[in-house]
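[job 0412] stage=complex_fold ligand=guanosine-5'-monophosphate status=START
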Amino acid sequence: LALEAELRAAITGTGLVLQYQPVVGPDGTILSAEALVRWHHPERGVIPPNDFLPVAQRSGLLRELDLWVLRTACAEAASWPEHRGRRPSVAVNLAGLLPGDADFLPVVDAIVTGSGLDWGHLVLELVETSLVALPPHALAAMAELVDRGVRFAVDDFGTGYSSLARLKDLPAQTVKVDRAFVTGVADDPAAFAVARAVVDMARAMGRTTVAEGVETAEQFHVLRGIGVDAYQGWLFSRPLPAPRLREVFAGGR
Ligand code: G
Ligand code: G
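[job 0412] stage=complex_fold status=DONE, emitting structure tokens
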């Protein structure tokens, strides 16, 4: 209960910070960076999201947390420099602020407009379960944002229970292939087959793909052979504090 009160205070005050993990193209150009929240607790030190997201969920704070992350990430990304002549997008996870919310469109509109970020530089990541069976008003809100240039990504694709064929029903332009399939892709024929099937199917349905959790050059090589569009993982970069990310952009390497 104390933790809940402290989390509430952190969301409305200070204590939360964002790190950003680059997502790169096949040639290493940074296409986007995913905002990942951390809680700097005064006594416990840094608490990772896997430890405090359940607290946020139980306490009904998930929406407030999403609003803080979206506001902060858009404001920071609005002044990102170019990397190799191209301005990277920012990707934000949504778990408590959802397309089905009656005020989804006006809330996102107010935050993005207020931040000065171009609509075309925003990616919103949702897990599969947040994207199935959406009512018409939710689909309309998403379509309006897509018209403005926002892209939606299905996070952790393949970990849900729905069949791969359900991808055609998901309103998302990008599919993030879960780390579970990336891990074994270079040495486990079954993992390779699944990854290839997901990527082939995503392509056939007009979606771009991002491989999550790429740790080795072998995994990258195999995934590039399959035709994955973008890559995220420790091979390229750990999540970085905002000032470090700027240095990487400016370095242009
Ligand atoms: O950053 P890390 O790799 O520790 O993230 C662990 C989990 O927490 C991941 O599943 C990630 O999606 C989730 N997560 C990280 N940052 C955010 C955030 O800002 N909002 C939400 N809703 N989830 C996040
Ligand atoms: O579910 P989501 O994609 O948001 O998860 C991001 C989480 O994955 C974060 O906890 C991040 O630190 C972690 N992560 C990012 N890259 C790698 C990687 O290459 N290997 C592993 N094991 N974890 C990673």
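The chain has nine helices and ten strands.
[job 0412] exit 0
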